[in-house]
Known about the structure:
This protein is α/β, with parallel strands linked by helices. 26% of the residues lie in helices and 10% in strands. The chain has 22 helices and 15 strands. The protein has helices at 21-27, 46-49, 55-58, 118-127, 171-176, 258-261, 300-308, 316-326, 341-355, 378-391, 408-416, 426-434, 451-455, 460-467, 489-495, 530-541, 553-565, 579-590, 624-631, 649-652, 656-665, 672-680; strands spanning 278-282, 331-334, 371-374, 399-402, 421-424, 445-449, 479-484, 504-508, 518-524, 545-549, 570-573, 596-599, 612-617, 641-647, 708-711. Strands 4-5-3-6-7-2-8-1-15 form a nine-stranded mixed sheet, with helices on both faces. The protein has a six-stranded parallel sheet with strand order 9-14-13-10-12-11, with helices on both faces. Strand 11, helix 18 and strand 12 (596-599) form a beta-alpha-beta unit. The two termini are 34 Å apart. The protein binds adenosine-5'-triphosphate. This is RNA helicase. Residues 291-319 form the DEAD-box RNA helicase Q domain. One of its GO terms (molecular function) is helicase activity. It is an enzyme of class 3 (hydrolase). Residues 533-678 form the Helicase C-terminal domain.
Amino acid sequence: MGDEDWEAEIIKPHMSSYVPVFEKDRYSSGANGDAFNRTPASSSEMDDGHSQRDPFMRSGFASGRSLGNRNARESNNKRENTTTGGSFGVGKGFGNRDFSNNKFEEGDSSGFWRESTNDCEDNQTRNRGFSKRGGYQDGNDSDASGASRRGGRGSFRGCRGGFGLGSPSSKYEQDEGTQRTGGLFGSRRPALSGTGNGDSYQGRSGSGSGRGGYKGLNEEVVTDSGKNSWKSEAEGGESGDTQGPKVTYIPPPPPEDEDSIFAHYQTGINFDKYDNILVEVSGHDAPPAILTFEEANLCQTLNNNIAKAGYTKLTPVQKYSIPIILAGRDLMACAQTGSGKTAAFLLPILAHMMRDGITASRFKELQEPECIIVAPTRELINQIYLEARKFSFGTCVRAVVIYGGTQLGHSIRQIVQGCNILCATPGRLMDIIGKEKIGLRQVRYLVLDEADRMLDMGFGPEMKKLISCPGMPSKEERQTLMFSATFPEEIQRLAGEFLKAKYLFVAVGQVGGACRDVQQTILQVGQYSKREKLVEILRNIGDERTMVFVETKKKADFIATFLCQEKISTTSIHGDREQREREQALGDFRCGKCPVLVATSVAARGLDIENVQHVINFDLPTSIDEYVHRIGRTGRCGNTGRAVSFFDPESDSHLAQPLVKVLSDAQQDVPAWLEEIAFSTYVPGFSGSTRGSVFASIDTRKNYQGKSTLNAAGFSSSQAPNPVDDESWD
Ligand SMILES: Nc1ncnc2c1ncn2[C@@H]1O[C@H](COP(=O)(O)OP(=O)(O)OP(=O)(O)O)[C@@H](O)[C@H]1O
């Protein structure tokens, strides 16, 4: 059971031969040997499997309707050489490197993917529980020698074989592109099933979809008493494995001083423009929007906290969601990235709790929180917790956060001291419930942040288990709230199981649309030119904070190391790094010590980091929704930002159509070459990615009675509603 956003990091089934992928490229004359080709070959992968149903094509994209506003840049209409050198180390070995001299030592081509004997030490180390998984090490790691640092940062260390794949001994391993005997993905756990899938990735819920989630790395062992079926190994229980070292990491407590608790960044110049965004509320008897915090009638302590947090004006999603939640209604809310969804659910929940005269929770072996908030990644849930702590400051409401990668005992200790609001990643939550430290009888509010992610094939099964856990109030007895910037149709339908029939749907702007405060640029860059281009861009950017997204964990390490060698202070975050390292990396990025953060999808959603001015998609994601979330790490809360994406026609063509749509809708320039690709890749029935359903209807329910379209200030608008409305979706 995982608590991370993993779909992009699953080893791809198309890696079906043991020819090292880079060499394969070479020998296949570049036909399509994209080592990082993300187009799943198998329809069993969800993205692909759903790709036949993208409503975009049904909506008449082929007519070019959505392209009307573009101002195509001819200057971009130039293909880059995709076959030049500067590749990702064709035949070069990083598996058996020695970084003691702060540089990669190249192995021979045959050793590129092979287990190096040098890896053994690391493997043993990990088996003893002192793992250093990510080859790349932060400069402030205590055991990093000063000599090995570069540009103020650590360089790669260890001999873990970060880029090596062990020699597969079976077809299975070859197909999965993984290995069990060490190397990057090896030796975390013993084989879990008869299939020989002993690598670190495990399909969620044993679906074997090849997509499911990350199985918590070295998660602390929980002995399954047998009571809790959801924890069974077959179901992907994160803790069902009785092998392996325990996780001992205890995250440092957050600062307790008031200044730190209320630290915030400034809203940007476009904050007031939020008022112009059209908002659509569908469902029956929606309470009217509020226009000010005063209208919410919150208690004085909450109002004080809101003021200390620097909030003077509501964002659109807050104007609509707060009264809906205060009225006790279930809600599915979709609003653009960085527009204040967290406060939109936290404030009314806290207001309810205060109004109901919540009593301070005391030390108890079994805690019964009134509110459970789940989110897909550890860093995000921690951030939500900090927001909950901020807004509940000075009240008797106690928020607690628990997530994987940390010592389970620590989570338990936090909980038993009292818990009104439990912020949790799904895996750790189920573990704690299984340990009977959390009772669900008192749950009045269940919040799914990044709800589409929480309900998709990755986390959906766990969420279903959560709502069917003994004691969990039925949907009629609890209030269920879902928030995200994207809500594909299919996921909306699934959500019905969690929500009361009369839930309200709030759509701020375009469902799944990109934030307009982000200036988006798409560059056509072949995979072998990407590094050069990246360095060029980063050098121009200077010290401005930049997130660079790549598609795999090993590539994150690779690029981070490469940038360090180019003397660009960089850190990285991905799921193969230990939690301590992840938090350190995020901290270094947040404080500006490392202005560049190389990340996988694990950092795509929700993270709210001050002053991120640029997002670079070194690799485009598989789905357009993920693209929207990634670029939403910049341009937050009315601030402006820039996103540059490298589009490799070899691997990204399937994204051309949805990208054109997202760009057009956000009134961005659409390069003519991208349009060309979009049109030329059109195949009747092709629909791109399901998760890329930026084209989802506003509210998938048939019943549109009671629907009202208003601008964010709460007034009826005579303007045409959200542009997607004119599509016939149903
Ligand atoms: N009314 C407000 N006034 C000022 N700042 C606000 C307001 N509401 C939220 N913010 C700030 O805006 C930032 C973004 O908010 P938040 O992280 O909740 O966005 P989000 O919509 O959840 O984004 P994402 O879709 O990326 O998860 C945060 O720093 C938050 O404190």
